[in-house]
Specification:
The protein is mostly helical. Helix content is about 70%, strand content about 0%.
Length: about 200
């Protein structure tokens, strides 16, 4: 039997979004299906029908986060390649898109990388595959300063730290209470400095 018509992709997306918000706010163990259903404008029956229950919903949230993030990175790399063949430019484009996706999907980002991730959950290799690919190309061209694995990990840690700090500030403070900081400009300068530290040449 097919899925009831009212349980469509839009409802699935709303449930995943509401569940991600709840996990970030209360933690995985305190996740309430009734609260998630109410926030999504439906009933718990929809959750059981679409995801099989609480564990299935948590798994779907994790998958949505990793799949969405990886797809964004692959798309950014493809756009960057269409604009030229410089791996350094690709690295900068990946970094900028990293922040864009995270700020647009803060709960999914935190579920994927934060302490709210379910116990035993690993980060999907697709999440860092584009970064590793570009860093590998820089190494092959002789422009990378250092070992590829170390460079990729350092770059990832650097951008992750800046993005996580911005998300934290946005969640904890009303925009009017945050000092006048251009987060985009600050991030771009930080990203550029990080790339300069690992990549030789213009």
């Amino acid at each position: 039997m097919g899925r009831p018509k009212q349980y469509d992709a839009d409802l699935e997306a709303r449930l995943i979004s509401a569940a991600a918000d709840a996990v970030v706010r209360d933690g995985v163990e305190a996740l309430s299906l009734r609260t998630v259903a109410r926030c999504a404008g439906t009933s718990t029956n929809a959750i059981y029908t679409m995801f099989g229950g609480r564990d299935g919903l948590v798994h779907a949230v994790r998958q949505a986060a990793m799949t969405g993030f990886a797809a964004s990175q692959f798309a950014a790399l493809e756009r960057s390649r269409q604009g030229g063949c410089d791996p350094k430019a690709h690295l900068l484009d990946l970094g900028r898109d990293y922040r864009t996706w995270a700020i647009e999907h803060p709960s999914l980002y935190q579920v994927m990388f934060g302490a709210q991730a379910p116990a035993g959950a690993d980060v999907d290799p697709r999440v860092r595959s584009c970064l590793s690919l570009v860093v590998g190309h820089l190494h092959e061209s002789g422009r990378l300063r250092g070992v590829p694995e170390l460079a990729a990990t350092s770059i990832w840690a650097s951008v992750h730290g800046m993005v996580s700090l911005e998300i934290l500030l946005r969640r904890r403070h009303d925009p009017a209470d945050i000092p006048l900081i251009d987060f985009g400009l600050l991030y771009d300068e930080h990203l550029a400095a990080t790339v300069r530290a690992w990549v030789a040449g213009d």
